[in-house]
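Each record in this resource describes a single protein on a pair of labelled lines. With that in mind, the following record should read easily:

===
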Amino acid sequence: MVFRIVISAGLLLGLPLFSYLALQQGVSPVWFGAADFALATAVLVALLARRDRSSLISLLAVSLASAAAAAALYRYRPDILVFLPSIFIYAALALLFQNTLGANREPLITRFARLERDGRLPAVLAAYTRRLTLGWTLFFYALLVQSVLLAWLTTPETFLLFANTLNYVLVAAFFLIEYVYRRIRYHQFPHASPLGFIRMLINNRVIGGGEHS
């Protein structure tokens, strides 16, 4: 458990820093694109795995198709290889949050808050977490629009500076600012720390192993 948390924290903190330092050293943007393509594939596989953990053949097919697509883009359109993965990831995350806001569905943040409290969620927090799920949805859509504009108007190096470093800072800032606000606004309720929240997600197999079947 501690190992998973350390690895997750190391990736979250290390990838943006490594990307920034590598860009300063003049590493080709195409290599970043290949790495980001692998990350986008991992996100897609994780989303599919949560829906149907038994479909290993489908997951393997997705992985192989993604590898083939990355190789073709590397050979013929390396510029798309740089831009496409981040755009896909933001679109997937926005849709993931948005789809839980539909009728007769529990918003994603509400589900997390209920897990954190062993299934007992006060009505005021249920309403707040629905709004927060919408907030995350709009936030990821904003990053999606930003990425499209950067891909259109700027250089690959500038795009990667945002996609692989600065946007991670924005996500972390959103997460921490919301946590502080929630602790102040709803001080009458207990709230897990950011580390405790990540531990809860891992314990419930929301991350690092898929959902319970």
